[in-house]
Amino acid sequence: MGKIIGIDLGTTNSCVAIMDGTTPRVLENAEGTTFRQMTHDRTTPSIIAYTQDGETLVGQPAKRQAVTNPQNTLFAIKRLIGRRFQDEEVQRDVSIMPFKIFHHFKIIAADNGDAWVEVKGQKMAPPQISAEVLKKMKKTAEDYLGEPVTEAVITVPAYFNDAQRQATKDAGRIAGLEVKRIINEPTAAALAYGLDKGILATVLSRFMTWVVVLSIFPLSKSTKLTAKKPSKFWQPTVIPTWVVKTSTAV
């Protein structure tokens, strides 16, 4: 059975990790970064560029040539994935993103009303573009493991709706990955922290991202959750399988 990789498909940077025994391990990319460098050097910019000779660049190579090829360099595509063109967030991005000022590159409405990008007259869906970043992550993992990788877990922001989550899965499929699960980013971080500690973490608020470490007691199907109320927006996430109590906050 092959490895299942974990991918953080970020708006600005992305990274890929595997389980090395019982420890999550973020992998170096092809640009030659090492674990002796800072953590952010193990990430890959979520930037995609299309050169004049038809080559597709992803990550640092795309970032380096952005100054000389801005009209064909895409970034922050995650802000469009799974969204409708008329969405308030998309219209705000249209007004501030530089894409629209170039003749060859702009945010457009697809036939079905989704927000797409047009490059040199070619209409492209955000999942199609994001798939290039996922392919890069897939290749990084395959180079490290020395074997094909076909399955992945991808993290998304906790506020992503069903359409955005499905679009992320579509991007994985285009990249040649079977997406086994879409996990909220705070939940993924909490699970990685507590995987070997017998603890669980949860997000307590949509307005404030809290990662709270919980002790798990498999005693009954009732739920007990205690935490300090930070604001009027605070609403606890209920976990109906275990009796839990707040142990530590991180």
UniProtKB/TrEMBL annotation:
InterPro entries: ATPase_NBD, Heat_shock_70_CS, Hsp_70_fam. It comes from Escherichia coli. Gene3D superfamilies: 3.30.420.40. GO terms for molecular function: ATP binding; ATP-dependent protein folding chaperone. Belongs to the heat shock protein 70 family. Keywords: ATP-binding, Nucleotide-binding, Phosphoprotein, Stress response. The keyword Acyltransferase does not apply. This is Chaperone protein DnaK (Heat shock protein 70) (Heat shock 70 kDaprotein) (HSP70). The lineage of its organism: Bacteria, Pseudomonadati, Pseudomonadota, Gammaproteobacteria, Enterobacterales. SUPFAM superfamilies: Actin-like ATPase domain. Transmembrane segments: none annotated. The keyword Phosphoprotein applies.
